[in-house]
Fold these 3 entries.
Entry 1:
Amino acid sequence: MGGKTSKTAAKPKAEGGQPVLLSGGNPQIAKGYGEEPVQAYIAAMPDWKSALGTRLDALISEAIPGVRKAVKWNSPLYGMEDNYWFLGIHVFTKYVKVAFFRGAGLDPLPPGTSKQKEVRYLDIHEDDELDEAQFTAWVKQAAALPGEKM
């Protein structure tokens, strides 16, 4: 998974030892590298969003063998090298936002625009049908572009 191992600091826990959910239901997960913090984030995603997070993570991992993973700023990030990320996931009240950090270079463009000209978004709501073939194609294209240093 990369040269770094999971380093996690203690974060507040809600009742039952579960991570605290921030505004919009985004899980508060300690910064860390590797599979463990990403899986902790996915497990803490509320309601239908956890199953979606599991599916997105699987599609990304299948499309990009050896993809690097981390949680920073309470969001899972995916990249080709440490600290250079092509994709991030964030939970909101009514949807899950997938950010393609160099999304302006993808074909076709993901539908959501950003104030940052390079970034494009895919917002997935509970009743949306995920086009897995298109999502996987975007992931493969995004992974081939230079990552965003974060």
Entry 2:
Amino acid sequence: MIRRLYDWTLSLAESPYALWALAAVAFMESSFFPIPPDLLMIPMILATPRRAFLIAGVALVSSVLGGLFGYAIGALAYDTLGAPVLMALGKEAYFEQFTTRYNEWGLWVVLTAGVTPFPYKVITILSGATGLNLPVFILTSIVARGLRFFVVAWLLWKFGAPIRDFIEKRLGLMFTLFIILLFGSFYLVRFL
């Protein structure tokens, strides 16, 4: 089933409504859809490199709006679904501890999920469930998703099809290593 969904999503890149399809996929991926918008972005940019940054901009705006929808899911569904389950298990105190920790590190969690292969939708929903400061969530989402989509757009615009394999197989790893180095630097500065 996932393979059919993947193939269907990829076919949207050739549609005359590809930008609209990208907007829909980027929105849904930020809150519940399993296929990343990069799948559409890459063939769209390779087909029309002059529109690379427009395509990245559509993905960014739609992804952040979808992230707000995911935030709303977390904020609204936690009270109706999550809290009763935790209460029945006697674990509501653990969620309070988790919420405190999550909100202390929320900016970094959203940034990390926004640029790495970690499912961004999980973080958008958790951010809503824990009540992460909404302006922090929005600004960090803009930075993280903007970095991710515009780096992909720039690489494809600059290098074209030869860079596609690197983007599809290694860019997520590069972003992950960048985040690890960033955290490591902050840790060293703070504790040394």
Entry 3:
Amino acid sequence: MSTSTHRHVELERVETGTYRATNERGGTLQMGTGSTSEFTPVELLLAAIAGCSAVDVDALTSRRAEPTTFRATVGAEKIRDDSGNILRDIELTFTIAFPDGEDGDAARAALPRALQVSHDRACTVSRTVEAGVPVTVRTT
């Protein structure tokens, strides 16, 4: 990965209601309005929250033991109020299990700290959401 601090994703319309996002490395994913099985932008935001924290937690715990179960579930309430649409009550829940034994015990012991570090410091996505960073929109 580049040492640049700038991150960039390009979005292109495929057809009405379907869009393709492409990252700097050439990876692509399609998203849509929710009328098909494609992820919606809101679902992608939730997936990004879960994925970002999962990467952190996995890196900190799996060096001690390979998990036997590793799942993250994230949910939120999408509401429309006087100011527009917004997600409220975002909740991320991990279900993680490690094998019995000394290595598994070490991973279980590291898990609470890994979750805390991800939430408080390492997960760029949830920290950005919580900080309420403004988004500038323009046209070229």
